[in-house]
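Worked Example 4.2. Read the sequence first, then its structure tokens.
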Amino acid sequence: MKTFFLALSLAASLSAASIPLFNTGTDASNNQLPTPGALETHFNLIPPTGSVNAFLTRWQFPYIDETSLGARWISPAIITPTAPPSFPNGGFSFILEQTFDMSPFDISTASLSGLMGADNCMIIRLNTTVLATTGGSCPATRPSFNFTTLTPFSATASAFIAGINTLQLQYSNAGGPGALVVTDL
């Protein structure tokens, strides 16, 4: 897990504080969840769309080795109490969000960075600021994709707001199974 640091001036001393952000497919300590089928708990589906009500770790994505990522690829899933999870095949778009509170900090010193990948497309935002787009146009249209390399993203102080901030993933898949990953937060 990468955390970002804020310098806080207190009288004549200088101290640093960090706010943890979580990679996809990780636990409360930001360690990779077991795969497949573990529930993504840090990025919330906003709102649940149709029958999809969760994102789960899916599989060892063949293009980028998860063992070095510190994250897992996650996929939209349909969870019911009476059947195993199922995964829709393409033609979908979702928004996932992770929030964090900046109210105790001086946002003029804040920054964050990370890496993302998607099959097919993802836009990542901090509040209303677009940090990066991967895989061509969103919603996804074939043949756009970005799951063989990861795309860097970053935010400077101007993207942060005092109070609750939202890291948002706008994800879409044109067809077939799909997944996304965010790491190095």
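Now turn to a second chain, presented in exactly the same format:
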Amino acid sequence: MSEELKNENTETSAETTSENDTPDFEEQLKQAKQDYLYLAADFENYKKNAIKERSELVKFGNERVLRDLLEVMDNMERALIAHTGEETKESLASGVEMIVSEMRGLLQKFGVKEVNCEGKAFDPNMHEALSSEPTDKVPNGHITQVFKKAYTYNDRLLRPAQVVVATEPKEKG
């Protein structure tokens, strides 16, 4: 009989304990739900801000480059305004050379590099063949002329070169 009393006391104390823990458990659950809702709302705000920042970066990311290009544009406009008398032809040519030099420096500043192609083997990943030319000045499959230079941007091809590729000359027979 004492065992039955012990079992009843154990069951009663377990029921009492779970009844006393229920309000605390409900409070913890309520707090966890609030925390979850707060974190979910905070994450949604973060996503919206990240999308907005990325959009602005894409929209205004080139602003610095464009501002520097405007300086080159100003110099080009000054060169066009210059009078073209005999004495100014040399100064105009000198001014254009300075502008080209300034533009090269600006491109280098932003990670754009010119790729030297003339005389090198044709590479379809770097070059766009416009035509071919029979010649013995350079080996077959090498570049004889460059119409547009190739440029890389941070070691990635920005624009392929437009070139003429050498072929073996036909023998006169």
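Notes for the reader: The first strand starts at residue 112 and ends at 115. Strands lie at 112-115, 127-134, 143-148, 150-153, 156-159, 161-167.
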